[in-house]
Design brief:
By secondary structure, this protein is α/β, with parallel strands linked by helices. It is built from 17 helices and 8 strands. It binds hypoxanthine and zinc ion.
């Protein structure tokens, strides 16, 4: 075990990492945001990064799920040009690579990126793919994309998002996601869309059991046939849901700092990640929204080790869980597992 926090951070940063749950809309550099705002005259309370921070980031606020989601409303105003969409996507991948993330599933809501200028959804998707491909070529990181639909927006918009995902199945989009307000909006009405996506070979992950109860996790698995759950930590409140996750081999995409900020957990000491792990649920560690939470995957690993009782050996297991739950082909997963775990073992 490293002797100091500085040493621990160095080790965790160097580890080859996998992030399965990161939103593009929550991954804008503050400097980029201020520059875009100034260039395009977006009306903001300030163009100074420090003064902008509280509008975009969850700083010292009271934890609250709906206030967390509010941040996305401001963020979607920044996609003012095609260049802005490309720049943000490119930088998101560059930043992940700099944190030694080797495999990233970056999710984006085409409707959010298209919002400011009413761009066609397929056009913003093309821009994201172009930018991501450029960043992959420059850094060697592997990136795949997921398209996110939002529960509290219309069924028709979700249908358009899922259609885009299916259309770009061969260009790097490997799965679909449902995000948004799970407290007030059930997932079940979206089931036909997710069924169609699965029939087209797309992976399914659903945000559930974060602000909502364990029954939302059951709904995501039984009704939407989710292979992975975004967060899902409140499954711990119902042992029959824990059993369901184990029986169906469903993987949880846990994002510790986000969980604290949304109020899904009251403090890190009460976070159920390690309990779920011990109970045999496949758990993984992810960032969610690096800019809103002001975090990196290294930071989340620090939290896991120092706050959630996760050992370095457990981190290896979590990394393996991530690789096995990735929306990649069996051959690609095998290749990634050999590559990353071999490197992991040389570092620990
Ligand atoms: N929960 C629900 N919707 C979201 C989240 C989240 O953590 N992040 C981005 N959209
Ligand atoms: Zn999320």
């Amino acid at each position: 075990m490293p002797r100091s926090t500085l040493e621990l951070r160095r080790v965790l940063h160097a580890l080859p990492k996998v992030d399965l749950h990161r939103h593009l809309e929550g991954s804008l550099r503050l400097e980029t945001l201020a520059e875009i705002a100034q260039e395009h005259g977006i009306d903001l309370p300030s163009y100074n990064i420090e003064q902008l921070r509280p509008y975009v980031q969850f700083t010292d606020e009271e934890p609250d799920f709906h206030r967390f989601l509010e941040k996305f409303k401001l963020l979607k105003r920044f996609y003012t040009t095609r260049e802005a969409v490309k720049r943000v996507a490119y930088e998101a991948v560059i930043d992940a690579a700099a944190d030694n993330v080797r495999y990233l599933e970056l999710r984006f809501n085409p409707a959010a990126l298209a919002h400011a200028q009413n761009f066609p959804l397929h056009e913003v998707t093309e821009l994201v793919i172009e930018a991501v491909n450029q960043a992959q070529a420059e850094t060697g990181i592997w990136v795949r994309l997921l398209c996110t639909a939002v529960r509290h927006e219309s069924y028709d918009l979700a249908r358009q998002v899922i259609d885009v995902a299916m259309a770009y199945r061969d260009r790097g989009v490997v799965g679909v996601d449902l995000a948004g307000d799970e407290v007030h909006y059930p997932a079940a009405p979206f089931a036909p869309l997710f069924k169609r996506a699965a029939e087209h070979g797309l992976g399914i992950t659903i945000h559930a059991g974060e602000a909502g109860r364990a029954s939302n996790v059951r709904e995501a698995v039984e009704v939407l046939h989710a292979q992975r759950i975004g967060h899902g930590i409140r499954a711990i409140e119902d042992s029959s849901v824990v059993q369901l996750l184990r029986q169906r081999n469903v993987t949880l995409e846990v994002c510790p700092t986000s969980n604290l900020q949304t109020g899904a957990v009251d403090n890190f000491g009460l976070h159920p990640l390690r309990d779920l792990y011990v109970l045999g649920v496949k758990v993984t560690i992810n960032t969610d929204d690096p800019s809103i939470s002001d975090t990196t995957l290294t930071d989340e690993y620090m939290v896991a080790v120092m706050g959630l009782g996760v050992s370095l050996r457990d981190l290896r297991e979590c990394t393996r869980n991530s690789i096995r739950a990735a929306f990649l082909s069996p051959v690609e997963k095998l290749q990634l597992e050999q590559l990353l775990l071999t490197e992991f073992d040389t570092l620990l």
